Amino acid sequence: MITLIERLSLLAAMVAAALLGIAIILVCQMVYLRYILGASAPWQTEAVTVSLVAATLLGSAYVLKERGHVAVGLVTEHMPDPVQRGMLIISDTLVFLFSVLMTWKSFELTWEAFEGGWTTDTTPEFPQWWTYVAMPVGFGLLALQCLACILRTRRGDPLTVSGGH
């Protein structure tokens, strides 16, 4: 189960990287259109924003897997191994609970936008639900990755430092 969750986190990180690449290309195109051709495409800013937000949410599970988030280890690094493991389990459990809540509430929001036929305020009037869908997916993956981290910590896997194994 842990391997499956970690593969899903890696897949989501790869999608996040692709979304970042798309955002970079679109920003370059926006600059070219506006400053060289004197034109604009109203959908570009929205597409860049959605891509960046989705990349952040989809990449969060992989960052947790790699323990790549910002952490202040001044105190915890000097604690005995069992204390470090306990602190990791507590923090991962808190993030898990938050992620489950966010998955549930963001799914409700996404579903409401889908059922209500909400559209964006921009000229192309994109369906709003597809701009929200990264929230329940990203937070759901983060919740699953929290479970995998808790299981790894409990079974005694080596503790990792920020930046990976």
Provide structural commentary.
There is one protein chain. Helix 1 (2-37) packs antiparallel against helix 5, helix 2 (43-65) runs parallel beside helix 5 (134-154) and helix 3 (81-116) packs antiparallel against helix 5 (134-154). This protein has one domain (2-154). The protein starts with a helix and ends in an 11-residue tail after the last helix. The chain is an all-alpha fold and 165 residues long. It is built from five helices and no strands. The chain is elongated and about 60 Å long.
Write the layout of secondary structure elements.
Layout (H helix, E strand, L loop, with lengths): L1 H36 L5 H23 L15 H36 L12 H4 L1 H21 L11
Helix pairs in contact: 1-2, 1-5, 2-5, 3-5
Mean pLDDT: 90
Strand content: under 5%
What does the largest sheet look like? Answer: none
User: How many strands appear in the DSSP assignment?
Assistant: 0
The count of helical stretches stands at 5
Number of domains: 1
Question: H/E order of the elements?
Answer: HHHHH
**In one word, what is the shape?**
elongated
- Rg over CA atoms: 19 Å
Label the structural class.
mainly alpha
Instruction: Provide the low-confidence segments as ranges.
Output: 161-165
Percent in helix: over 70%
Span of the ends, CA to CA: 19 Å
Q: What descriptive keywords fit this protein?
A:
5 helices; disordered C terminus; 165 residues; single chain; mainly alpha
Compact description:
With 165 residues, this protein is an all-alpha fold. It has helices at residues 2-37, 43-65, 81-116, 129-132, 134-154.
